[in-house]
Amino acid sequence: MGARALYSVAALAAVLAAAAKASPEGSSSFGTGVSAYAFDDAAYSYCDAGYPVSQGYSAVPDAKLELVQVVVRHGDRTPVNLIPDDTTTWNCNGIEENIYLHGTDQPEKNSTGSFKQVIEIPTWNKKYGFSNQVWRGTCDVGELTDRGKAQHRLLGSQLRGVYVDKLGFLPSQLNGTDDIYVRTTHIWRTKNSAESLLGALWPERSISPEAAIPIHTYPEQIETMYGNTGACPKLTAIAAQITNSDQFQDFLRSQGPLMAKLIGILDVSGSSWRNSWDGYVDVVQTRECHGLPLPCSDRASAGTSTTPKCVTVEDAAQVRRNAHYEYTFKFRDHPLSQNYTRLAIGSLIGTLRDQIQDHIAGKTGSMKLALYSGHDSTVAPLLAALQASNRNMLWPPYASNLVFELWKKTDGSRLVRVIYNGQVLKLQPEFEWCDLNACPLDKYYKHLEKYIPTEIATQCASN
Ligand SMILES: *[C@@H]1O[C@H](CO)[C@@H](O)[C@H](O)[C@H]1NC(C)=O
Ligand SMILES: *[C@@H]1O[C@H](CO)[C@@H](O)[C@H](O)[C@H]1NC(C)=O
Ligand SMILES: *[C@@H]1O[C@H](CO)[C@@H](O)[C@H](O)[C@H]1NC(C)=O
C-alpha cells in the first residue's frame, strides 16, 4: 500500500522532463530524488522469467544469423542468508551431482554414476553441532532447487524451438562440442543451471567422455562474471560513495521503519543489513517462490503488543520494490554508476565484444552458441550498461535470459539484436541509443565501449 505513494506520478514527470534535457550520450544519472522512481512491478514475477517462444519469434529479414550469446541467471535456489532456528524444510532430492574423482588418465573407467553428493543436515545437537544455523531438509545453502532445474530445462527447450527447429541455426544433435562454448561462475547452482539448460537444448546426447561438454569456470579469485570485490577493491570504495549519497540515504531513511522491523524479526546485524535490501530480497523471495511462510519471530513481539511478529506479504512486496530501486540506482542512475558497472561487469562485456570480433575474423571455428551462466549480479549490471528501461531493470527473475544475436545482412553489414526474457530489450525512452531489434554493430560497439575497462588492474586499485 504505502509503497505506491512513494513513487508519485508528479515526481516521475519531473524527472523525465529533467532527463529529457540531458544529452543522450552524457551522464546516465537522473540526478533527482528517490521519489522519482516508478517501479511498477505489477506484471512482474521474481519467481519465473519470461523466455523466447518460437511462434512469436521472427528472423531478421535479409540476414543470416552468425552467433548467439546467451547470458542467464541461475534458476530458483535456496536462500543464501540464514536465519537461526529456521524450521523451514527445503528439499533438493531431485538434484543429483555425479562426482568424478579420477582424472582423464583413466578414461577406461566409466565415470558416470560412480559417486554422488548428498547434503546432510543433522538434527541439532547443542553440545557439538551447529545445525540450528540452517534449515531442515536436504539442500545446501544457495543450491539450485528442482524448480530451478526445471526452469532451465524449459529455457533450453524453448531455445531449441527457436534456434534448432525454427531457424535450423544450431544442429539438432550435437556432434562433438565445437559448436558451443559454455562458461559458468565457480558456484554450483550456475553449473547445474547450465547443465539443465543444455540437457534440454540437446536432449539426446551420448554420455561418453569424448562427448562431454566442457563447462569453463574461472577460479573465484579471478571471477569476472560479477563484481569481484576481492580482485577489485575500488568496487567497494565506489559502492560506499553511492550508498553514502544524499539520494540513497534519503531512500534508506524513507524505508527505515520497515528495515528496523525486519532486523528485529530476522535478528540480523552488520552493515550489509543496514545499507542494502539485497539480503532481505533473498530471505523473502526464496520463501515466496515456494509458498513457504515468511519469517516470524517471538523476539520482535516481546516489546509491545502492537509490534508485528511476522514479515507480511505487503512487507515482502515493498522489500522487492526497494531492491529494484537499489540495483537500478547503483548500476544505472548514480553519477558513478558508469564507473561502478564498468568495474563490476566490464570485463565480461569486453569478453562478449571480443568474442563477436573473433567470430567475424573467423577465429572461433564452428562455434555458434556461447552460454554464460551467472547471477542476478551478472544480468543486472549488463542491463544497466545497455541503459535498459525501468521495467527491464526490475530485479532479474530466476532463469532470466539475455540473448545477443549477431546477424549478417545480405549487403555485408552486421546487426545485433538483444532479447531479454523473450522480448526485444527496451531502453529508457530518454536514452534510446539504438533499436535493439536491429542495432548496427558499430553503434553497438560504440555504446559498449565506455563500459569496457582499458586497464582493469589499475582502475581497480583503491586509493
Ligand atoms: C557407462 O555407464 C553408462 C551408464 O551405466 C552406460 O550406459 C554406458 O554404456 C557405459 N559406458 C561404457 C564405455 O562402459
Ligand atoms: C554427426 O557425426 C556422425 C558420426 O561422426 C555422423 O554420422 C553424423 O552425420 C553427424 N551429424 C551431423 C548433424 O553432422
Ligand atoms: C570514473 O571514470 C572516469 C573515466 O570514465 C574517470 O575519469 C574517473 O576518475 C572515475 N571516477 C572515479 C571516482 O573512479
Distance between the termini: 44 Å
- From the spread of the alpha carbons, the general shape counts as globular
Question: How confident overall, as mean pLDDT?
Answer: 87
Oligomer classification: single chain
Signal peptide: 1-22
GO molecular function: phosphatase activity
Organism: Coemansia thaxteri
Protein name: Acid phosphatase
What does this entry look like structurally?
The chain starts with a helix and ends with a helix. Helices cover 37% and strands 11% of the residues. With 463 residues, the protein is of the alpha/beta class. It has helices at residues 2-6, 9-21, 146-166, 188-201, 233-243, 246-254, 256-266, 271-275, 278-288, 298-301, 313-333, 337-360, 376-385, 441-449, 456-460, and strands at 63-73, 89-90, 136-137, 180-184, 215-217, 369-374, 401-409, 414-420, 423-424, 439-440. It is globular, with a radius of gyration of 23 Å. One 2-acetamido-2-deoxy-beta-D-glucopyranose binds next to loops.
Topology overview:
Blueprint: H1 2-6, H2 9-21, E1 63-73, E2 89-90, E3 136-137, H3 146-166, E4 180-184, H4 188-201, E5 215-217, H5 233-243, H6 246-254, H7 256-266, H8 271-275, H9 278-288, H10 298-301, H11 313-333, H12 337-360, E6 369-374, H13 376-385, E7 401-409, E8 414-420, E9 423-424, E10 439-440, H14 441-449, H15 456-460
Parallel strand pairs: 1-6, 2-3, 4-5, 4-6
Antiparallel strand pairs: 1-7, 7-8, 8-9, 8-10
Helix pairs in contact: 3-4, 5-12, 9-11, 11-12, 11-13, 12-13
Bound molecules: 2-acetamido-2-deoxy-beta-D-glucopyranose (3 copies).
Pfam family, one: His_Phos_2
Signal peptide: 1-22
GO molecular function: phosphatase activity
